[in-house]
Amino acid sequence: MKKTILFAFIIAIGFHSFSQGSNTEQELIQSYFKLTKMALVEDAMALSEANGNIFWPLYKQYDAEASKLNQYRIDYLSVYVKQVENITNEQVDEFLKKANTYNKKMTALKSRYYKLMKKDLSSKIAIRFMLVEEYIQTAVKYEMLENLPWVGDH
Questions:
Q1: SS3 of 47-86
Q2: Using CA of residue 39, residue 41, residue 47, residue 49, what is the dihedral sign?
Q3: Which residues 6+ apart lie within 8 Å of 65 measured at CB?
Q4: What predicted TM-score, i.e. pTM, was given to this entire model?
Q5: How far apart (Å, rounded) are the C-alpha atoms in residues 100 and 96?
Q6: How far apart are CA 36 and CA 7, in angstroms?
Q7: Higher model confidence: residue 10 or residue 113?
Q8: Over the stretch 12-25, which tens digit does the pLDDT of each residue have?
Q9: What is d(CA 112, CA 118) in angstroms, rounded to the nearest whole number?
């Protein structure tokens, strides 16, 4: 539970400052986020050594691909935050298009890694990871939405 609270705090700080901070600050926040996330996943998965030897290389591949998608999300959200006060209909459409693209690609990524983990480990381990990942992504999404300015708030 303490790790979950710490993780939520890191998300809040990271999201609040991602569009304001320097690249070095963003890299430090992302690095700490990854380490904290990995510790949460490790605790939640509670894998045997044999399963861990199979799981962790898959997780690292998944995380590398997910990180690229998450950077895409940070990029389009940064643009949205900068435009929100004077956003045009076309910019709103572009934002929604990018959000939908992100969601489709993330769903496809999770589906692909579920199948890989199911094949190499088991359905139970694969779904456990997907549930842990969904929990973490939901916490991230919640914090992002809590901190995003809404169109028309200004």
A1: CCHHHHHHHHHHHHHHHHHHHHHHHHHHHHHHHHHHHHHH
A2: negative
A3: 109
A4: 0.82
A5: 6
A6: 7
A7: 113
A8: 545 545 455 566 76
A9: 10
Find the angle CA(61)-CA(28)-CA(71) to the nearest 5 degrees. Answer: 50
The number of beta carbons lying within 10 Å of the beta carbon of residue 43 is: 11
Q: For residue 7, how many other CB atoms are within 10 A of its CB?
A: 19
**Residue pair 136/43 in contact by the 8 Å Cβ criterion:** no
CB 70, CB 40: distance < 8 Å: no
| Distance from C-alpha of 46 to C-alpha of 119, rounded to nearest angstrom | 19
- Burial call 21-38: b when 16+ CB within 10 Å, e when fewer: eeeeebeebbeebeebbe
Query: Per residue in 98-131, is it b (16+ CB within 10 Å) or e — as a string?
Result: beeebeebbeebbeebbeebeeebeeebbebbbe
**132 contacts 44 by C-beta, under 8 angstroms:** yes
Q: How many CA atoms lie within 13 A of 106 on its CB side?
A: 20
